[in-house]
């Protein structure tokens, strides 16, 4: 896993935009020392958000269950690398609860040589960030469950409103600038036409 050395001293990205299944999300990860990994994901269109906090022991436990144990610091570096798309050997995906259960069902069916019977799945708004490590002969998936943000932070909503107002103001200023330039362009066009039709202009054309 030499490819991970490129992020050995790289801090967690403040925010990165990633396309998952045709939907653009902003993903933010942060690490509290070597103890807690925090992940937040926001749908850039609907502004729906999911988040999760994972203690170092929890992370190491889920890696151990896959049969491919990783220490917390190594796991964080793998996640950083995947989010920044700096290596082909690690990548991330975002799945719904239903997507994950369907994936498990297909995997179980492939193992048994038969298709797993369909079952009714409970409604869930959870999301799962799947970190995948692919080696030459193996592929390991590390699922990180993210809970929906039922009550958005008022401060974040205010920040979004300020950002939207700023974008609207910039768009209106650009439109006004274009409208101011149009009379000047028409004036220049008319001036050029008069110059061409003048006697001096006709002489120059002959």
Quick overview of this protein structure:
Helix content is 43%, strand content 27%.
How many helices? The count is: 5
Distance between termini? Answer: 77 Å
Range of helix content: 40-55%
Shape: elongated
**Could you spell the SSE succession in H and E letters?**
EEEEHHEHEEHH
- Beta fraction: 25-35%
Strand order of the largest sheet: 1-2-3-4-7-6-5
Which regions contain 5 or more consecutive residues with pLDDT less than 50? 1-10, 201-206
Overall residue-averaged pLDDT value? 80
- Over the alpha carbons, how many angstroms does the gyration radius reach? 27 Å
Structural class: alpha+beta
Task: Present the secondary structure layout.
Layout: E1 16-20, E2 23-32, E3 36-43, E4 49-55, H1 56-65, H2 72-83, E5 90-96, H3 97-112, E6 127-134, E7 139-148, H4 154-197, H5 199-205
Antiparallel strand pairs: 1-2, 2-3, 3-4, 4-7, 5-6, 6-7
List keywords for this structure.
206 residues; 5 helices; 43% helix; alpha+beta
């Amino acid at each position: 896993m030499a490819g991970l050395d490129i992020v050995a001293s790289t801090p967690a990205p403040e925010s990165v935009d990633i396309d998952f299944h045709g939907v653009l999300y902003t993903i933010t990860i942060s690490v509290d020392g070597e103890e807690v990994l925090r992940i937040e994901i926001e749908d850039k269109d609907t502004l729906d958000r999911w988040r999760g906090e994972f203690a170092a022991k929890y992370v190491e436990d889920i890696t151990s269950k896959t049969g491919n144990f990783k220490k917390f610091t190594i796991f964080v570096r793998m996640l950083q690398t995947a989010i920044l798309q700096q290596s082909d050997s690690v990548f991330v995906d975002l799945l719904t609860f239903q997507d994950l259960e369907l994936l498990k069902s297909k995997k179980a069916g492939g193992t048994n040589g038969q298709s797993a019977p369909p079952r009714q799945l409970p409604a869930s708004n959870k999301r799962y960030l799947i970190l995948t490590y692919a080696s030459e002969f193996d592929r390991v998936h590390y699922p990180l469950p993210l809970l929906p943000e039922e009550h958005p932070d008022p401060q974040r909503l205010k920040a979004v409103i300020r950002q939207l107002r700023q974008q609207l103001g910039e768009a209106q200023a650009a439109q006004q600038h274009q409208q101011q330039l149009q009379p000047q362009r028409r004036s220049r066009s008319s001036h050029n036409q008069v110059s061409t039709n003048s006697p001096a202009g006709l002489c120059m054309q002959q």
